[in-house]
Amino acid sequence: MSNLFNRDIISIKDLSSGDIDLILSESEKLIDVAEGNRKLNYLSGRILATAFFEPSTRTRLSFETAMHRLGGSVIGFAESKSTSTSKGETLADTIRVLSTYSDAIVIRHPNEGSARLAADYSDKPVINAGDGASQHPTQTLLDLFTIKREFGKLENLKVGIIGDLKYGRTVHSLSYALSMFGIEILLSSPSSLTMPPDVMEYCKTKTKINDVKLDYLIEEADVVYVTRIQKERFPDEEEYQSVSGSYKITRSHLIKAKSHMIIMHPLPRVDEISTDVDNTLHARYFRQSFYGVPVRMAILNIVLGGDVDG
Ligand code: CP
Questions:
Q1: Which of 127, 128, 145 is nearest to 6 (CA)?
Q2: Which CATH superfamily is domain 12-135+291-303 in?
Q3: Which among 54, 139, 145, 226 is the best mutation to test ligand 1's pocket, defined by most ligand atoms within 8 Å of the CB?
Q4: Is there a contact between 160 and 220 (Cβ–Cβ < 8 Å)?
Q5: What is the pTM of this model?
Q6: What is the CATH number of domain 137-289?
């Protein structure tokens, strides 16, 4: 049994590089099941609770697909107003109850630290599907999986990250993980949305990480990871408007890119990648979002100790 059995996944920093390697290698074995070409019942009789206090398309539905593809069932909610939190129930009490109905809980919540709090009150494993501007570890695992599928390795690559580095939880988790593997990180953002100092300090102890000009980043990087401005995290509309639309990747940016460079994006996209990039050889963001299914299948199967004999 893996040491991830029955474990919470709250921060990518909770995982060792060995844990990550295991999840990625198990994900590889599950691609054809994720595509619906083969059926497995590893999680038959098991129930996943999805507690989404913030909107989601990919994370919630890929977790649900992952559970169904492994023969398990899903309960949950996609917005808090349909739950008893709207009557004043605390997150702690909601989680205590969900943990008696299910075998694992996936939570997304606007508050940083909410997933850790949920884990403190749950008898069952809790998986962080995004806690405010803090982290989104399972997104990072599918991001790493995408990179590994493309390049056959994680080492000796340069990853450029563009966008809202202040409020973007995906880029915080991703930067921690890339630095664990010694991957060089190039950053480009509006000056008011730079990477938080604590993330920079952690990464600098493990790899090269530097702010650079956008054009340089696109020329140098093997992977260009673009993110949207996280409008919902801004304290006021005026501050958001001051940066809205301040960067957009178009086909003309790609002329000097390496021929093997891939463009990733956690999605949803707003306006930061022009749609004319979608059918270039560089675009990988829709394939990347599909990889959420095999990677979350692997995570659930490992955490729940699925019966690998079916
Ligand atoms: N990448 C991601 O977290 O997408 P959703 O917000 O649609 O889940």
A1: 127
A2: Aspartate/ornithine carbamoyltransferase (3.40.50.1370)
A3: 139
A4: yes
A5: 0.97
A6: 3.40.50.1370
State the CB neighbour count (10 A cutoff) for residue 186: 24
Q: Is residue 57 within 6 Å of ligand 1 at its C-beta?
A: yes
Atom of ligand 1 nearest to the CA of 61: 8
For residue 16, which phi and psi values (nearest 5 degrees)?
A: -85, 165
What is the torsion angle, in degrees rounded to the nearest 10, for the CA atoms of residue 289, residue 62, residue 269 and residue 208?
Answer: -60
Q: According to the model, what pLDDT value does residue 309 have?
A: 52
Residue ranges of the chain that CATH labels 3.40.50.1370: 12-135+291-303, 137-289
**From ligand 1's centre to the CA of 7, what distance in Å?**
23
Could you tell me if 235 and 247 are in contact, meaning their C-beta atoms sit under 8 angstroms apart?
A: no
Q: Rounded to an integer, what distance in angstroms lies between the CA atom of residue 92 and that of residue 96?
A: 6
- Residues 203, 185 contacting (CB under 8 angstroms): yes
Regions of the chain with pLDDT less than 70: 308-310
29, amino acid identity: K
Whose Cα sits closest to atom 3 in ligand 1?
59
Whether the CB of 228 sits within 6 Å of ligand 1: no
Beta pairing, strands 126-131 & 158-162: unpaired
CA separation (Å) from 72 to 104, 230, 290? Answer: 11, 33, 19
Instruction: Tell me how far apart the alpha carbons of residues 81 and 198 are, in angstroms, rounded to a whole number.
Output: 34
Q: Is residue 268 lining ligand 1, measured as CB closer than 6 Å?
A: yes
* 135 Cβ closer than 6 Å to some ligand 1 atom: no
Residue 2, pLDDT score: 85
Say what the pLDDT of residue 227 is: 98
Buried b (16+ CB within 10 A) or exposed e, 17-48: eebbebbbebbeebbebbeeeeebebbeebbb
Ligand 1 neighbour 59 (Cβ under 6 A): yes
